[in-house]
Structures are given as structure tokens and as C-alpha cells.
């Protein structure tokens, strides 16, 4: 793994009036790393991610993503990353092919490149038989995997995944993580938020947020050793209890 940090965060803070949603967090993420951004619902994970992907302006602190400053180069960040939102992002009333074509165009790919990418993506996902069906008719697991693939259609340096496996069955969750491993092996940095603590085991490193602050950050193995527990769920419970 390269020692080059593609995400650097220092004292990043987001306030909404008197409420501090993200409280002076600091961390670095390396190229090709699977970085888990963990915490209970409401811990501040999604708010922090929105600052990093350039759609929410921080209240204070510093951060660069893919070499671009979150305060001054938000549009450049958006072009350099992939993003899969917590809520399913594709269009139910378009077919699989039409969704791929639409988002390929949004990301600035040529028509030729979109055709090439579309063919590869449909084959890899095994969607040949449903390529001309409306996305709304697909099972949730297929939708999630398609959404992930579309988020990387423009070969981004970093892909941000916000609760990507929420609501899917265990088998689909495992398949989704196999796709994440494949992306990381290709040098893509994967920044993933989740409240499933077992998924922390799949990450190279994890940070755990509690009430807007990062309370722990290390490899899953070292965190379990530090807290003298057998699994990441117990690490989280110890932190949540203070």
C-alpha cells in the first residue's frame, strides 16, 4: 500500500447553530485503503462525509481529498471521487442501461467509453437478462451493487459509500464487500460508513465516532487488543458506554 495520503483531515468541525455535529476530527487515509467510518446512527458519520465530498461547507478545520481543499476546490473533489448515497441513487423509471448511460454522461465520459463501460459492467454484475428492464423492478441487492458500480464508472481515485449494505441480506452484503475488495486491489481508496460493527472486520483501518468525535482509530485487530475484547461490536459498546 502506498504511503500517499489521499484524504487528510485536521480538526474538521461542523456546527448547526449551537449543535456541534462533527467535533474537531482528524485522520488520514492512504491510497488503496479500505477505511471504515463507524458509529451509531446520529454519531456524525454522514455529516462528516458530506464535508469530504464537497457538498457541505465545514465550520472550521482543514481537509484535502484527492489533493483538493474542501473549502476552495469542492467541484474538483466531486470530479475525482465516486459517491454512493445512503438512499438508493439510481432512477427507478430508467432501465439498467439507461441509468449507466445517464451517469456516465454526468461524469463526462464519451459515448464510446460509456458503451464500453456499460458492456463490462453489465457482464460483471450478471445483469445481461435484465439490462433493458427498469431498475425499479430489480431486487434491492442488485440495485445496490449496480449503484456501486455506477459510482465508479469514471475510474475515481476514491469512492465514498454511505451505509451501502443497509437493508440487504447477508449473502448480498458479502458479495458487496467482495466488490469493495476488488476496487481496493485496483488502487481505489474506499471510504465506507456503516453501523454494522461486523463489517469493521473487513476494513484495513477503522475510526469509531461517538457523539461527533472520533474516539478510536486503528486496525480492527489492534482495537480488539486495546479494548481486550473478541469482536468490534464489543469495542463499540465499550466506547459508547464511556
UniProtKB/TrEMBL annotation:
The keyword Ion transport does not apply. Keywords: ATP-binding, Nucleotide-binding. InterPro entries: AAA+_ATPase, ABC_transporter-like_ATP-bd, P-loop_NTPase. SMART domains: AAA. Residues 7-236 form the ABC transporter domain. Gene3D superfamilies: P-loop containing nucleotide triphosphate hydrolases. GO terms for molecular function: ATP binding. PROSITE patterns: ABC_TRANSPORTER_2. SUPFAM superfamilies: P-loop containing nucleoside triphosphate hydrolases. The keyword ATP-binding applies. PANTHER family: ABC TRANSPORTER G FAMILY MEMBER 20 ISOFORM X1, ATP-BINDING CASSETTE, SUB-FAMILY H, MEMBER 1. This is ABC transporter ATP-binding protein. The lineage of its organism: Bacteria, Pseudomonadati, Bacteroidota, Flavobacteriia, Flavobacteriales.
Amino acid at each position: 500500500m502506498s504511503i500517499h495520503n489521499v484524504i487528510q483531515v485536521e480538526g474538521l468541525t461542523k456546527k448547526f447553530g449551537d449543535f456541534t455535529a462533527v467535533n474537531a476530527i482528524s485522520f488520514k487515509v492512504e491510497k488503496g485503503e479500505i477505511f471504515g467510518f463507524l458509529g451509531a446512527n446520529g454519531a456524525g458519520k454522514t455529516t462528516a462525509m458530506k464535508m469530504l465530498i464537497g457538498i457541505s461547507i465545514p465550520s472550521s478545520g482543514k481537509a484535502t481529498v484527492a489533493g483538493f481543499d474542501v473549502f476552495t476546490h469542492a467541484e474538483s473533489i466531486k470530479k475525482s471521487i465516486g459517491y454512493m448515497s445512503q438512499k438508493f441513487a439510481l432512477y427507478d423509471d430508467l432501465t439498467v442501461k439507461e441509468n449507466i448511460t445517464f451517469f456516465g454522461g454526468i461524469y463526462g465520459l464519451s459515448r464510446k467509453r460509456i458503451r464500453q463501460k456499460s458492456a463490462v459492467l453489465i457482464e460483471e454484475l450478471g445483469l445481461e437478462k435484465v439490462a433493458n428492464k427498469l431498475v425499479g423492478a430489480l431486487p434491492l441487492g442488485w440495485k445496490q451493487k449496480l449503484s456501486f458500480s455506477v459510482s465508479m464508472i469514471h475510474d475515481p481515485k476514491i469512492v465514498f459509500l454511505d451505509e451501502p449494505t443497509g437493508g440487504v441480506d447477508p449473502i448480498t452484503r458479502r458479495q458487496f464487500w467482495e466488490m469493495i475488495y476488488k476496487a481496493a486491489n485496483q488502487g481505489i481508496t474506499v471510504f465506507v460508513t456503516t453501523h454494522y460493527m461486523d463489517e469493521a472486520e473487513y476494513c484495513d483501518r477503522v475510526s469509531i465516532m461517538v457523539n461527533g468525535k472520533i474516539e478510536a482509530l486503528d486496525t480492527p485487530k489492534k482495537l480488539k487488543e486495546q479494548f481486550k475484547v473478541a469482536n468490534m461490536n464489543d469495542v463499540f459498546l465499550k466506547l459508547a458506554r464511556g
